Amino acid sequence: MLPPLPATDDLLPAFAPWFDVAGLAVFAASGALAAAKRGQTAVTLAFFALITGVGGGTVRDLLIGAPVFWVHDPRAATVCLAMAAVIWTTPERWWKDSALAWFDAIGLAAYAVYGAAKAIGYGVPPLPAALMGVVTACVGGIIRDVLAGEPSILMRPELYVTAAALSSASYVALGLMGLAGAPAAVIAAAAGFGLRAMAIRYRLALPAYRVRG
Fold first, then answer.
1. What is the Cα–Cα distance from 198 to 189, expressed in whole angstroms?
2. What pLDDT score was predicted for residue 52?
3. Residues with Cβ < 8 Å from 85, sequence gap 6 or more?
4. Strand partners, 163
5. How far is CA 51 from the centre of its chain?
6. Phi/psi-derived region of residue 181, left when phi > 0, alpha when psi is between -120 and 50, beta in every other case
7. Most buried pick, 116, 178, 202, 205, via CB within 10 A?
8. 3-state DSSP call for residue 143?
């Protein structure tokens, strides 16, 4: 089992550390894969893994007035660097082109729920708490894309932020209806991941704005 979190995280539900680690691990893996597919060094893989893993959570903590999690808990950086090491030491053939998208989808759902749960734990009202889940889930991937020279996911119409919003909003809504804790988290994360998975599989996208002359 994971050791107890610092006292400032006592407000979080019991499931939260597991969702935090899951989000960190898969986002870090997606960051390391982005660097690996461009033939970068081990140091660059580690940097991409760290910045992708902690980027969204850092912004969230600054906005809700919480201690920045990875500065006070060494496990966060350890998980990110460990994932970079895994990517670095495994053959390229293990990682298909779609691996980045699927890792990102898992992290998106888990981190959106965790971000919303942490915001609620720090007294943030329901709507802003759901938005904090979106920030937690999306900012790290945005930073990764910018550093890798890829078009930001925000500039593509595919369902990405929408999937994060579904996870975080579902968790908040279920809590308001009286279903909280791990059951609500699992349902909310599954909803967001399912939507993102369908978007990847079937190329689902929101309608784009049409310029009217």
1. 14
2. 94
3. 46
4. none
5. 12
6. left
7. 116
8. helix
What pLDDT is stored for residue 210 in this prediction?
Answer: 82
HSE-CB of 204 using CA atoms within 13 angstroms: 14
List Cβ neighbours of 160 (8 Å cut-off, separation of 6 or more): 108, 138, 141, 153, 154, 196, 199
CA neighbor of 146 nearest in space, from 29, 33, 34, 27: 34
* Residue type, position 173, single letter: A
Residue 1 clears pLDDT 90, i.e. is over it: no
CA distance linking residue 43 with residue 35, whole number of Å: 10
What's the mean pLDDT in 133-143? Answer: 94
CA atoms within 13 A on the CB side of 176: 12
Between CA 182 and CA 190, with CA 184 as vertex, the angle to 5 degrees is 100
CA distance 117 to 124: 10
Q: Which residues is 14 bridged to in the sheet?
A: none
- Cα 21 from Cα 39, distance rounded (Å): 27
Q: Evaluate if pTM is beyond 0.70.
A: yes
Hunting for tokens 């760290």 — which residue is that? 50
For the segment 146-181, what is each residue's pLDDT rounded down to a tens digit?
Answer: 999 888 878 877 899 999 999 999 999 999 999 988
**142 closest CA partner among 48, 52, 28:** 52
Cα of first residue to Cα of last residue in the chain, in angstroms, is 61
